[in-house]
Amino acid sequence: MNNKYITIAEGEDYRTIAAKMTDLGYKMNHATARNILLSGMKKFIRSISGELGHPIDEDQALSLIMRQDIHEVIGDILTLSIQEEDGKCQQVNQTANQLYQI
Amino acid sequence: MKEKEKVVDDLELFKFYQTTKVLTEEGKLVTSNQVIRNDLAQRNAKLVTFVINKFYSKKSKHKTLRSDLLQEGHLGLFDAIDGYKPELGFKFSTYATWWIRQSVNSYLLDEEPIFHIPSHIRTARNKLENLAKERSILVRDISKETLEEIGMTEKMFASIEAANKTRSWNHVCLDMPLSCSDNQTNKSLRDIIASDTPDFSLSFDNKKIILASIKAFQALNTREKHILLQRYGFESNKIVKTESETSK
Predict the structure, then answer these.
(1) What are the chain A neighbours of B214 within 8 Å (beta carbons)?
(2) B13 falls in which pLDDT band (50, 70, 90)?
């Protein structure tokens, strides 16, 4: 099934993102926002798996970004990364352990 | 007398309904007066019940699906109202019966298989099965000459045979527990089937993953960064700004 829309528990929908991006000076509609998100996610996943020594090709990345659980994991990874960047990594190891033991 | 009056009324209403229709160049209906459409459907609602009782009351499956069949029948009735042409002189019930039966049959065919089989293949399969029944032979024993007689290609015959194979397939749910004893551990078939896609649950060094993800994130362009962060509810303005500041 070629489903481009995946629902996540928290965060913004594509229309809100498009409106915010337009305010920031990047004029776009909801479909463009979705396409950029998916292409960004594809790059993100490919880059991470390459860094970890498990390179994946374009098709594998595409099949991964169509999965709900991968979207959720990316959200968690981003949260952890931002906390790490900010130097607030009190719970990083604990949450990461929980995440990768699933 | 009353019935006669109603027939006249119905006809007039249908004629008036015709005038409210807006059609495309190809003759497809775009809009019409919904109030009159609903009124006509209410007046002819008993026809649906009649058709269902007449054609779909013998099998036990039809009895259990009765309310669904009635709903489908009503959808067929709406199609009939849209397509009926009173100027041709036929009674509405004659025309609508076919639409109701078509709608119900299509629903019943859709309901049956877990694997979807296109309707033209299903129709051709029924045709072949009826032919085989008539001649008291098996479907696979039907000769090429017979296929040519009924205007069916070999390609279509191959498709029908492929569709028939799905009937014998065993359907297993991926979330089904493996055994009664495994109910406690909640292990299902999904947990033990190997996947082609790479598994992210491999035990990597957590720190390594986070560093890799930071690197990956930095490789994205500004638009992608903003959108990715906004998608997960972060205030992208602050984060992307601080990054550009740090890079400076």
Answers:
(1) 81, 84-85
(2) confident
